[in-house]
Design goal:
This protein is 33% helix and 33% strand.
Length: 135
């Protein structure tokens, strides 16, 4: 109990007047060092999620290399957009068709799981997907 009381005594709540009302803007310790306010944890987390670019699993990277699939910045942007669209529709695992390339993506993780092109697409069956995006 004394430790808690001592901890409380180390911090003093600084109040300022805004439009005639008091609000707490920051916490100060006894040495008068201000601890700045910033965005909430959820705001930061949502910003990170919204700015996150698509990732590629090790398996997908192996497939891209072995199948000589090179992606431009524009194609990566299109894949990001497709994953976002799939997410808005509630898709968890998506088939993304772009030009002559196909990608399987985990929408929640924004991760490409595998990739195929041209010849690998003939007579193919894609399973465990719940949506498709054609871009």
């Amino acid at each position: 109990m004394n430790d808690f009381k001592n901890m409380n005594n180390d911090y003093v709540l600084k109040r300022t007047r805004i439009n005639g009302t008091e609000s707490s803007n920051s916490v100060q310790n006894k040495k008068n060092k201000s601890i700045p306010e910033g965005p909430s944890f959820n705001e930061v987390l949502n910003k990170i999620k919204s700015n996150e670019d698509v990732k590629f699993s090790k398996h997908a990277i192996d497939r891209l290399n072995s199948r000589n699939i090179n992606l431009t910045d524009n194609e990566l942007y299109r894949i990001n957009t497709a994953i976002d669209k799939a997410g808005q529709k509630g898709v968890k695992e998506a088939l993304i068709m772009m030009d002559n390339k196909v990608f399987i993506a985990s929408v929640q993780n924004k991760t490409i799981i595998t990739a195929a092109v041209d010849d690998q697409l003939r007579d193919s069956v894609f399973t465990n997907i719940d949506g498709a995006v054609i871009i």
